[in-house]
Write a structure and sequence with these properties.
Elements: H1 13-27, H2 39-46, H3 50-62, E1 66-69, E2 73-76, H4 81-100, H5 108-127, H6 130-146, H7 151-163, H8 165-170, H9 174-191, H10 196-205, H11 208-222
C-alpha cells in the first residue's frame, strides 16, 4: 500500500511476523471485527513469548487494526454502523474535492507511475496474491490523490483511507476485484481528459462497495450469535 498498516519497524522479528500474520487473518476474513485476541492463545499458536505477542498487538493497536480496552483485552476493531456511515461521508467529501482539484489532463511521469501501479495490481490479481492486491490498491489511490497538489488534502484522504482499513479488509471479496480493476482503468482514462466531474464521481462510487458490505456484515452479526472458534494453530517462520 506503501502500507501504513505494515507491521515493519518492530524491534523483534518474530513480533513483526506475528503482527503481519494477524493482519492477514483480518484481511482474509479469518478474524472478524469484534473477535477477541487472547494473548495465551496467540502465544501458543505462534510458539512465542507473551512479550512478543504483546509487542505485535501493540503495533496493530497503534495503526488501528485492533483495539485494547481495560478489563476486556484486545479485539479486532469493530466499527458501529453510525461510525461507518460518518467515516464514509467524510471520505466521499475528501475524495470528491481532491479529484476535482487534479489539473486535467494528466500526462508524463505522473500518469506513468499510476499506470505502473495499476499493472502491478493486475499482476497481483492474476497471481491471486491477496495481500499484494491490498498493497497495490492503496498505492494506486495514494498516488492518485497526490495529484490534487494540496498536501494537506491528500494527507486527509490517506488518513481516512487508513482509518477505514478494517472496514475495507472485511469487505474484501475476490468476486469484486475485477470490478475494482475496471474502475481503476476508468480513473486512468479520465485522467487523460478534462472531465473532472466524471473523475470525482467514480472516485466516490468506487468506495461504496466496502461500506455496503460492512454494514451488511454488521446487520448479519447483530441477528445471530455464534460461538467463537479457537484461534488457528501453527507457528510462523522464525
Amino acid at each position: 500500500m506503501g502500507r501504513p498498516h505494515s507491521a515493519a519497524g518492530s524491534d523483534d522479528p518474530l513480533a513483526e511476523q506475528i503482527a503481519q500474520a494477524i493482519e492477514r487473518d483480518i484481511i482474509f476474513g479469518r478474524l472478524t471485527p469484534g473477535r477477541k485476541l487472547p494473548e495465551e492463545e496467540l502465544s501458543q499458536r505462534f510458539a512465542a513469548s507473551r512479550h512478543q505477542v504483546r509487542e505485535a498487538l501493540a503495533r496493530l493497536a497503534g495503526i488501528g487494526i485492533v483495539i485494547k480496552e481495560r478489563n476486556k483485552g484486545v479485539t479486532v476493531r469493530r466499527f458501529g454502523a453510525d461510525e461507518v456511515r460518518e467515516i464514509y461521508e467524510i471520505r466521499e467529501v475528501l475524495q470528491r474535492q481532491a479529484a476535482l482539484r487534479i489539473p486535467l489532463p494528466v500526462s508524463g511521469a505522473r500518469l506513468e507511475l499510476l499506470e505502473s501501479i495499476h499493472r502491478d495490481n493486475e499482476r497481483a490479481v492474476q497471481r491471486g496474491d491477496l495481500r499484494s492486491i491490498h498493497e497495490t490498491n492503496d498505492r494506486f489511490h495514494t498516488e492518485l490523490f497526490r495529484l490534487c497538489r494540496n498536501d494537506m488534502l491528500s494527507q486527509l484522504v490517506k488518513q481516512f483511507m487508513d482509518m477505514s482499513y478494517v472496514i475495507r479488509a472485511n469487505a474484501f471479496n475476490t468476486d469484486h476485484i475485477e470490478v475494482a480493476l475496471r474502475e481503476h482503468r476508468l480513473m486512468l482514462d479520465l485522467l487523460k481528459t478534462t472531465d473532472s466531474w466524471a473523475l470525482s464521481q467514480i472516485c466516490v462510487d468506487h468506495i461504496q462497495y466496502s461500506k455496503t458490505k460492512y454494514l451488511a456484515f454488521l446487520a448479519a452479526k447483530d441477528s445471530e450469535i455464534e460461538p467463537e472458534q479457537p484461534l488457528e494453530s501453527g507457528a510462523v517462520r522464525r
